[in-house]
Amino acid sequence: MTLEAWYMDSSEEDQRKPHRLNPNQPVPLKELNQLGVFYWKLNADIYEADPELEKIRKEQGYTYMDILSIRKDTLPDYETKNSVRLSLQLKMFFTEHLHLDDEIRYILDGRAYFDIRDKQDRWIRIDLGKGDLITLPAGIYHRFTLDETDYTKVMRLFVGEPVWKAYNRPADDFEIRQKYVASLKAF
User: Please, what's the largest Cα pairwise distance for the chain?
Assistant: First the structure.
C-alpha cells in the first residue's frame, strides 16, 4: 500500500474524521515531494533491527529517536466534556504550527493524520498507518491528529538532540518559514 493524501473539506466536524472533499481530490506523492514532504514505507514489525530504517537514519543524520504511544489510557485528561473527546495534548498538536527543524515521524502501529498547507494555503490531509515514515520540512505549516481509532504508536526521529518547539501560526517572520516559502517557488 502507498501513501494516501487528499484535499480536505472545510467542515468543523470531528477532526479525527477523514474530511475528504466530495468528490475526493487525491494529492499524489510527487506533489507532496514538491512541498518538501518525503515518505518511505517500511516494515514496522522489525523496526528495532530494520536495515532499511538504519540506512535512512544514517543518510539523513537522524541520531536520536524516541517512541510515544498516543491513546486514551496514556494521555492525561483524554476525555473532555466537549463532543470531540480529545485530550489537551491532541488539541495542541492540532493547532496549526511550524517547527524550526524537520519533523520526522514513523508510525509503528495504529493510524494518524498529518495536515499540511499547499502553495495556495489549502489543507492536504496525509493518512498514515503502520510502516509509514514521513518527513515534514522545517517551516511548513501543519497539524497532527489521530483518526477515529484514537490510537497510534509513533517513533519520533531527530537530528541531534530532540527539539520539539511549536510556533503557532502566524509565524511568517521566522527565517526558516521564509526559506521554506522561497523553496516552493522552484516548482
Answer: 46
The neighbouring-strand residues paired with 109 are 153
> Would you list the DSSP string of 102-146?
-EEEEEEEEEEEEEEE-TTS-EEEEEEETTEEEEE-TT--EEEEE
Q: What is the pLDDT of residues 144-159, one digit of tens each?
A: 999 999 999 999 999 9
Nearest to 103 by CA among 72, 71, 62: 62
pTM: 0.91
If one counts every other C-beta atom within 10 angstroms of the C-beta of residue 163, the result is 11
For cell 470531528, the residue is: 14
Contact 90, 145 (CB under 8 A): yes
